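Progress against Task 2.4 (sequence-to-structure conversion) is shown through the following example record, which the project officer requested during the mid-term review.
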Amino acid sequence: MNRPGEVQPDGAFKFSMPRKDLKVTVGGTPIKAGFALGSWVAFKKMGNDAMLMGDLVLIEDEVSPVMKKLLEGGVQVTALHNHVLHETPRVMYMHIGGTGDPVKLAQTINAALDLSKTPPGGAGASSEEKLSIDQAQIEQVIGHKGKVKGGVLQFNIPRAKAPTFSMGDSLTGGPEIPNSMGVGQAINFQPASGGKAAITGDFVLIAKEVIPVMRALRDNGIEVTALHSHMLDDEPHLFFMHFWANADAVKLAQGLRAALDKVDIKKEQ
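Structure tokens generated for the chain above:
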């Protein structure tokens, strides 16, 4: 991968590759790389092979050459879509997956990344910033602890029951997908002045949760910006609902909490 990875508490080996080279605004708001421009790839050991999942942040001209290289190397492209609206320049998100020899998968991904302007590992390390929002109050409202990274307050909240990755034609009996491999509720706060913040992320939902969560978000002034799948072989099949708002941080946290109450999530220990 030509960059360092990190073993997650749930056993996944994850590479974070924020697109710090991009200068993107959403509705006129400049966004940080760790807020909505975070490419990542993760591997989970599965016998002598590995399960792979990831999400690559690409500009339009990078999509076709990256896709071609991935497919040639046996890496599945499982989704391609937007996550936000009104962004400049336009940003696309390419979700990838598969199983096989982890070294060969990594070589293919590295070759594909070389066809984009994704920075190499360790480029442009972020200095930590003091948040201008009340982290403790937001955590209290959300009901979970967050972490601060690159000036962004991030939450990753697991579903109560981990989804599984089906093997071959079988829809049951596959390995659980670790939370860090993109199946947790991802909520990010990018602070602004005066206690305000932009929020984005995605809710990870089963079918019956989609409409209640959509209504809860919209009723609280939070825009739904995308609804789609990220994977092909998940059981149950999951739907990913992306969102955006820019307003008072605590009020937005209350709206997110109302939506979280519609999801079967793991309670904070």
